[in-house]
From TrEMBL:
Pathway named in the protein's UniProt entry: Isoprenoid biosynthesis; dimethylallyl diphosphate biosynthesis; dimethylallyl diphosphate from isopentenyl diphosphate: step 1/1
Top-rank lineage group of the source organism: Eukaryota
Example GO biological process: isopentenyl diphosphate biosynthetic process
Annotated protein name in UniProt: isopentenyl-diphosphate Delta-isomerase
Domain Nudix hydrolase: 52-200
Molecular function via GO: isopentenyl-diphosphate delta-isomerase activity; metal ion binding
Origin species: Paraglomus brasilianum
Keyword Magnesium in record: yes
Family classification: Belongs to the IPP isomerase type 1 family.
Reactions listed under catalytic activity: isopentenyl diphosphate = dimethylallyl diphosphate
Keyword Protein transport: no
PROSITE patterns assigned to the protein according to its UniProt record, in alphabetical order: NUDIX
GO CC aspect terms: cytoplasm
Enzyme category, top tier: isomerase
Amino acid sequence: MPPTVALNLDQYDDEQVRLMEEMCIVIDRNDRKIGADTKKNCHLMENINKGLLHRAFSVFLFNSENKLLLQQRSLDKITFPDLWTNSCCSHPLNTALELEETEQWGVRRAAQRKLQHELGIKPEQVPLEKFVFLTRIHYLAPSDGTWGEHEVDYILIIRTDVDLEVNPNEVKAVQYFSLDELKAKFKNPGDWKFTPWFKLISENLLFTWWQNLDNLTQFKEVDMIHKLVS
């Protein structure tokens, strides 16, 4: 594992700094666990440029009208603040429950945990078995000169109506979009800016899935890792 990088975090939000001490799952390019490291170390470009790679997930939550929930990341976030992205994106932690790989139960538990943390969605509204795991995405994206992402990202889709109680430390705003509305927003974003992983997934895969929400089984690629990184 890379050595801990000395970095003054005093300029950042206290709660977000605390979360930087969570332990992420460090993996190789085939998504095999090779260790664990702090969220801070996993997101420093100094380490990413040396190859440090961790496991993540992205949830795409659709309501009963087939509209996708997007969130705008809080200005308090250390990485990619103020950008719009998919419903929820984060990391399974290096704990027994979230390390379980059978049927992606660990990633599903992490998704359920973060949906509650970020958006106030009660676990019973997003039961583990209702998540549909489709595939994995490997990508790398700098946030600024210091921070970035380098992840193998598990793609989870869930279709359900939920009650939201947004955590302002995590999320600045939320909005549901139809497929046509989101395509139009990508074409004419105005002052909207999107996270790089959301754009990558949307441009390469999401819109096809969206048009087939009643038959997602045909798109399951449980052994696939889409390499969207040079």
